[in-house]
Amino acid sequence: MAFPLPTAEDDQLIQKLRELPEDYWDFKADDTHEYTHGLHNYPAMMVSPISRNLIRITSSIRPVHSLFDPFSGSGTVLVEGMLAGIPTVCGNDINPLALLLCRVKTTPLDPIHLRKVCSALLDQIHTLYQRDESFFSGADHYMREVLGLDLTAKDNWGSDAPSYLKEYCLSCRRADFEIPSFKNIGYWFKPNVILSLQLIKNCILEISDEPIRNFVFVAFSESIRLVSNRRNGEFKMFRMPPKKVAAFSPSVIGEFSKILSRNIEKMGNFYAACRNTSRVTIHRDNATELKSIPDDMFDLVITSPPYGDSRTTVAYGEYSRLSLQWLGLGHLTEKEILGIDRSLMGGKKYRKGFASHLHSPTLQNSLEQISAIDLERAGDVYSFYEDLDASIRAVSEKTKAGGYQFWVVGNRTVKKVLLQTDVIISELASLYHLQHVYTIDRNIPNKVMPSLNSPTNEAGAKVTTMTNEHIVVLRKI
């Protein structure tokens, strides 16, 4: 496809970007957790100053009345759109936990009323816990000493925790206490932790104000991760070693209270800074189709798609699993929760080869190199880029003519072959009325990513993961 020459707006944009210092986009000293950005951790979050500056620079060149992020994640772009006062802000994600975070982060709550409700909640939790403290604190001792269970084992306590807890409740004459039940709950939580979390959940459910209830559930979700037996700093489901599990004794109510108090302060700052003039809509569409979103709607797209398929790159589903099981978000079955990563980009398996139809010579060259080493792994890579190509097409359909798109991507390595996603996107986009304008390179000193990974899945074979990102700038022609 023959593209026209750059427009005057393109020239202005390129000039503004080139005038910036080389390390401008690193944001080493910026507070990336201010406002509601810091309510909840999430894998591979785009740091907020990126979208803030992209909105500012684009708005200085052409009016921005509508903003879209098709891979919203925890809602960073949406929050920045509201802070900038963009009239129409739209997000999309397929993960129910991401959707909850987006809704909560973009719903300004009056801090006075919020503090009042949350103070009453914490008082209720502490009162109920103290009234029956021996019931909560004695659960671990009962399992170990009376029932003889190993609380670090995967079997027995690990696999059948609900039945043991019901027996414990009967022995304490607390048969009325609801016991949560999902796969391997005992493997991920100790007895007193489960009972304390359920107490907190029961109290949260009594909050009648839905936006505040959702806000508090975000603090609850963050607490779940921190009081579980999962290893710190991991997005995938890896448990602490047995010795650490045995010694682990988190203060569940204390952790929840601390997170809730922090989040109330951040919401107060957001409430004060937000212009509250934006109309925010959040969708749960497959990003390869975006069926519920009108065409030709958005002046500006800012997004950061996954770096690769969730099963081998950033496991959004695994990270979200315990929160989804405790909160029941999206009314998913246990099977659907366990299969979230397979439903995300690159979920389709090509075990016996594939016929590439994607318009990217750079991708084709990489696929040929990987196929020569591992055909099935090449199929995983192709599956991801097949979905990415469909997403680029769908997002183009939603963008107004002349509208700019900013795709924040990282270039990963598979089987020691570098996948130049920034170049691949610019090549794929050319089929969908999108012209490559510019590419910004940035270091990622403060993005939460593992520093090492195994590109060959061989034990001990580790390489450094990506330490920089690329912001691909496209314009709808």
TrEMBL record:
Residue intervals of the Ribosomal RNA large subunit methyltransferase K/L-like methyltransferase domain: 41-89
Keywords, ordered alphabetically: Methyltransferase, Restriction system, S-adenosyl-L-methionine, Transferase
Pfam families xref list: UPF0020
Chemical reaction(s) catalysed: a 2'-deoxycytidine in DNA + S-adenosyl-L-methionine = an N(4)-methyl-2'-deoxycytidine in DNA + S-adenosyl-L-homocysteine + H(+)
Recorded GO MF terms: DNA binding; site-specific DNA-methyltransferase (cytosine-N4-specific) activity
Enzyme class, spelled out: transferase
BP terms from Gene Ontology: DNA restriction-modification system; methylation
Name the record gives this protein: site-specific DNA-methyltransferase (cytosine-N(4)-specific)
Source organism (scientific name): Faecalibacterium hattorii
